[in-house]
Design goal:
By secondary structure, the chain is of the alpha/beta class. The chain has helices spanning about 20-25, 30-40, 55-65, 85-90, 130-140; strands at about 1-10, 45-50, 70-75, 95-100, 125. It starts with a strand and ends with a helix.
């Protein structure tokens, strides 16, 4: 069975209530449940994790190197623009990496226009809301 890790960065636990005009009204549980169902329909195992702590995200990436995970879908949230440490961890991961952002970061503040994670990502999806996670999962499962 193929395995994918979905990582959600800081403040994404507040989805559905935090700035819904930017991030939508779906909760993180809604997104994760839909991804789990889609993965299961295709015979894939999926683990979804959220953390507000950079080190926990890095630890999850390190664990994925050793547990048979073939791909990581990551929304690093604010760590996108600040974390060389997450970039370094992803650089040590041999599988596919897809970076996802709910909002179009390029239409927002200028500091959000740079992504350290993009330097490693095999693909980047931004501005599609939760559909971006589904597009990432489809890309991973389809190999595209």
């Amino acid at each position: 069975m193929h395995k994918v890790l979905v990582l959600h960065g800081p403040n994404l636990n507040l989805l559905g209530t935090r700035q819904p005009e930017i991030y939508g009204r779906e909760t993180l549980a809604d997104i994760d449940d839909a991804l789990r169902a889609k993965a299961a329909d295709h015979g894939w195992a999926i683990e979804c994790r959220q953390s507000n702590h950079e080190g926990e995200l890095i630890d999850a990436i390190h664990a994925a190197r050793l547990d048979g995970t073939g791909a990581i879908i990551i929304n690093p949230a604010a760590y996108t623009h600040t974390s060389v440490a997450i970039l370094d961890a992803l650089n040590a991961f041999d599988g596919r990496v897809i970076e996802v952002h709910l909002s179009n970061v390029h239409k927002r503040e200028s500091f959000r226009h740079h992504s350290y994670v993009s330097l490693r990502a095999d693909g980047v999806i931004a501005g599609l809301g939760s559909r971006g996670y589904h597009a990432a999962l489809e890309a991973v499962m389809g190999g595209g």
